[in-house]
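Protein 1 of 2
SEQ + STRUCT:
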Amino acid sequence: MKIGIILQSNNPEHIWNTFRFGITSLKANHGVTIFLMSEGAELDTIADTEHFDISKKVAEYK
């Protein structure tokens, strides 16, 4: 199955969950594309938080 995910938020929890879902889908042999729109395009400027290791999830997705 091919999955497209649109990320329109710069909220750390939303970003973390988007990439967690994408990674889980890739491990299940699905094709996954994450589209960054609006505030989601700020992904590179969002720092990790105590609860959400965004940089780790992004690196794992690649």
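Protein 2 of 2
SEQ + STRUCT:
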Amino acid sequence: MTGLGNELGNGLGRIAGTIGGLQSSEISTDAASAAGVPFAGMMRAMVQQTAALDQQAAQAVTGVISGQGGEIHDAMIATQKADMAFELALQVRNKAVAAYQQMMNLQF
């Protein structure tokens, strides 16, 4: 179970590290390649990681349903990872929209 917890923690750490703008080896090269536009690169990397987790979850669920192998607990874990990544991306988006709206309401 600790290996599973570490895997989940590592996956969430990569996403949180990307969102926090941390410079680590776990951040995808897409975020690093967009050095001129760090926010756009960060968002692109987060969306790509979320899509990859969603695809892994879909494959795991399809494997369980079709009986081609795969354990149900692996499918459930993959689904929860994808759900957590999506919720995190949604919250970041909501904060970015709120910040934009607040900036637009400033009066000079």
